[in-house]
Records
---
Amino acid sequence: MRRVIPITEQFQHFVEEARGGVWSDIYSKTRQYWTQALELESARLRDVYLRCDAYERAEQRQDHRNGFYVRSFQTRLGELRLKIARSRKKTFLPGVIQLFQRRTEEVMLLIREAFLRGVSTRQVGKVVASIGLEAPSAQTVSQLTRSLDALVKTFHQQPLQDEWAYLFLDGVSLRIRRPLGRKRLQMLVAYGVRRDGSRQLLAFLRSSGESQAAWEGLLEDLFRRGIRGQNLELIVTDGCPGLAAAIQTVYPHVPHQRCWVHKLRNILERVRRRDRIAVKQDAQAIYEAENRRAAEKAAASFCRRWQDAYPQIVASLQEDLPDLLPFFAFPPYLRRKLRTTNVIERCFVEVRRRTRPMVCFVNAASMERIIYAIFHRFNQQWKNPTLRSFTHAA
């Protein structure tokens, strides 16, 4: 029988040190080869330009060698210190290095992604330095993130197919720096789901509030880009009056569902503490009913029981009830998803997590860059998986 040799802790340390030493040697040799190759390419470009060897006399000479200068270049293997050839009139950078470029595209992508994943501009330098690279300044990080502006513009102008069955609309509040102090701005967001359960964050719009005009701006943008509403079966919102009015203007023939989570929260905020459990149970009985008729009976029971104690709550519920029950027209497996805006609220959790270290945005452009980066990452993650609860198979 083959004898099993026990692996001691000392042997494990030896293996880890050996592995680390091997990779350290590989990185060191690779950096050395890269340095030599880039320096030789720089010297070759100068020789081609001058068309003569060193110290050679030539009647048609238009320039002269002028030694070298040292330039640092950040790569994923660490910093390279390169001797770049130059003449009296120009320098000769290798083709992989552009003028004024100090980092490879991979390193710049690393810096940008670190920032977009929640690391502040001042802390990105520490993260990059921890892997042996030169720490970029906060100004450098900001400059690199400006490359997203073209992508943001493309996102806002991208055509959309009229294939969305469910549209979820909501807004998230963010802070921005203004000359007179910090100010709250609203980011209005549209989230679409197809019949097969595939989903996408379709659009966002910066606004000073959630007025009817602001929401009409977002909905008209969706309409202009291709969502005519021919396949829309339901629009779910948080209950904002301006949004409800905007829907009647742009998509008047699409049923409107008001979020039950927001409505229940509004009800409980105006209820005395001793009554909250009972009021909550009676309100839940409405949207948990088996069908719309049973829900209407539960709503009538709620109104009779709490009419004397909370007449304003009862009047508000009766007024909003037509917009709270449209989800009963859909199959039972869809109702739980269609009665609230929870699917879009989960996206806002990531927005708040990412923007919390920033305290407030410097300007509107930086706000849009961050929102685009977060939404783009969600859309990339959602390309293959679908919301199973939106399919009958679930």
---
Amino acid sequence: MKCERVYFFAHPEQPLREVEWIHYGRYLDERCKGKPTQYITRRQEFFGREFRVTKDVLIPRPETELLVETVLRLRPEQGTVVDVGTGSGCVAISLALESKPAGDRLYVGLDLSAKALRVARGNAEHLRADVSFLESNLLTAICDSSIDVVVSNPPYVPLGDWPGMQREVRDWEPHLALFAGASGLAIYERLIPEAWRVLKSGGLLALELGFGLSEAVAELVRGWKRVEILPDLAGIPRVLVCKKP
């Protein structure tokens, strides 16, 4: 109907036109086949804003908002913030918009997928967020220790979990953004040493945690300072933060 939700509820008597029934039937058929509603409507709310999503990016989850909240609380007043595996750009864009006035901060989103970066750039333009996006395999695009904050919601699902996953996730969301080897630790094992390389002394690392991986990831940051693991609203360890000495 191309109308606001409030109009839809205020006019329950309004019949659908033929073309609207045709679209509804097609969307319903896609949903019955398991296609997530967010990929049908091409939108998902995150941190109070509407983001465009396609099958090339992971659908933003409410629990990832804790990652944003944690960085907003701990980030320095100025410097460069890098979001690794940015996908739709929801983390980097939310950080940039919630930090207004941005001052001397620079926000960068990195992703291996060129298609994902197109989605992220579109979201930044639509939401008027001052974020730069670069194609990069984790942090390989950064050559020196110049970064103040590295934040990431990396792939962390073990490959063995694939058969038992919801079909909406297993069959539709990009596997590049989901799976991380047999243990789920493959990306953490690469990302944490790279973060050490690019962060300034005292720089902040913030990571979303996969279910049951908090202790293993904590072992990977042995030698970092001020290691803290934060639970989400369900009490599940969800975010790990630490600082480079």
